[in-house]
Amino acid sequence: MPTREELVEHLWREIINPLEDPSWLDNIIANCRRRPDSTFAEVGPAIERAPAAGVSAADLCLLYRSATYEAVFGTLYAIGDPGVDDNDVLGLYEDLSTSPSARW
Question: Which of 17, 31, 48, 104 has a Cα at 20 to 30 A from 41?
Answer without folding.
Answer: 17
